[in-house]
Amino acid sequence: MKPRIYNFSAGPAILPEEVLLEAKESLYAYGETGIGILEMSHRSTPYESIVNEAIANMKKILGIGDDFEVLFLQGGASLQFHMLPLNLAKEKTTDYICTGAWSEKAIVEAKRLGVVHEIASSKDKNYSYIPKISANQVHTDSAYLHFTSNNTIFGTQFKEEPPANGIPLVCDASSDFLSRPLPMDKYSLIYAGAQKNIGPAGVVVVVMRKELLKRSDANLTPMLSYSVHAKEKSLYNTPPAFSIYVVGLVLKWILKLGGLSAMQKINEDKADILYKHIDQSKIFRGTVEKSARSLMNVPFRLPSEEMEEKFIKESSKVGFSGLKGHRSVGGMRASIYNAFPKKGVEDLVRFMQEFESKNA
Ligand SMILES: *Cc1c(COP(=O)(O)O)cnc(C)c1O
Asked: Which of 56, 197, 207, 277 has CA atoms 20 to 30 A from the CA of 65?
């Protein structure tokens, strides 16, 4: 096999090696079917089992029962920015917390359909912190409260859910979904584009309370209706079959590791190594408030842009890919999602040490 390097890409991002190897086998022939996974009818019995097993394992991992629906949809998290208010807001206002570029986009789409209360924002300090929310900021007559749990670009993460004051809590968890246990009793709907933490591009997962389906208008165009997709068990039209299959493999991988508590420990461990190193360094520095640091996306900077350029260039030469920060933030960003190996973080830290001793 060809060698692989350390991939710090923010998305599409690294997947577990054993998942890739199994998918590779299935590409040619899935199980005993004699048909490759890309070539298989989504109405076939083996494919229906793949979807049903993925739904069952998702529920097992999240510890949820029949009061929740698990949907595999298309259009990415970006279409959810629209589908969510379209299905759930109706004539009502909505509440949003703005903690970064993705929250901003979600708000723009919700505003197309109705009145949005932006109840808190961290824009005043370039999204470098997570605002404190108190329940009484939330409008009890709004359709839901929306937040972005992990801010992929800026590298901040909610450490606990904001209080929803009795209205449904909705979350864009695209970049930290299944990275830690989730208190599902607090949530009404979570959506996540798969390509950051749980699979390939092309599928977005929506986990929602069944009772919310009542709000979803029967006259919506079917592709945009949660009710239709729920009724058809995510097989209303041809689904992104391969992407769902790979998500299914990732779910099995998470279960094998020990579920979300085990996943959290692994992720905390990795992030800790990197942040500790940044904090003791004389040249590297973090860019966000320590209490808000993301375990998934770790942004850091050097004293000058020239030095940063040098760092990125030299790091890519020795096999670290994707460390360049998002164009709107600059500097560096190491995305260390679920599947990113601890050894890769340790090797990066060693490289940073060497870089510092040569350039301090
Ligand atoms: C990447 C990302 C999105 C956009 O996802 P698409 O699947 O490209 O539409 C939305 N929200 C967050 C938090 C993201 O990280």
From this structure: 197
Residue 122: alpha-carbon gap to chain centroid: 20
Does residue 193 line the site of ligand 1, with CB under 6 A?
yes
Q: State the Cα–Cα distance between residues 9 and 131, nearest whole angstrom.
A: 27
In whole angstroms, give the CA distance from residue 36 to residue 23: 10
Mutation to probe ligand 1, out of 174, 329, 333 (largest number of atoms < 8 A from CB): 174
State the distance from the centre of ligand 1 to the C-alpha of 287, rounded, in angstroms. 21
Q: How far apart are the first and last CA of the chain?
A: 39
Q: Is the dihedral of CA 332, 338, 340, 342 positive or negative?
A: positive
| Residues across the chain | 360
Contact 157, 176 (CB under 8 A): yes
Cα 187 from chain centre: 16
d(CA 349, CA 276): 10
Residue 105 burial by CB count (10 A; 0-12/13-18/19+): exposed, middle or buried? middle
199/192 Cα distance (integer angstroms): 10
List pLDDT tens digits, range 17-51.
999 999 999 999 999 999 999 999 999 999 999 99
Count the helices and strands in the chain (H runs, E runs). 9, 14
Q: Tell me the CA–centroid distance for residue 78 and ligand 1, in Å.
A: 6
Please indicate whether residue 177, judged by its CB atom, sits closer than 6 Å to ligand 1.
Answer: no
Side-chain half-sphere of 246: how many Cα atoms within 13 Å?
26
Residue 232 tokens, joined: 């058809």
Nearest CA to ligand 1 atom 14: 174
Domains of the chain, CATH where assigned = 17-257 (3.40.640.10), 259-359 (3.90.1150.10)
Whether 197 contacts 178, CB under 8 Å: yes
Reading the block at residue 299, the tokens are: 């942004």
**Ligand 1 atom at shortest distance from the alpha carbon of 78:** 9
Nearest C-alpha neighbor of 96 from the set 71, 70, 69, 123: 123
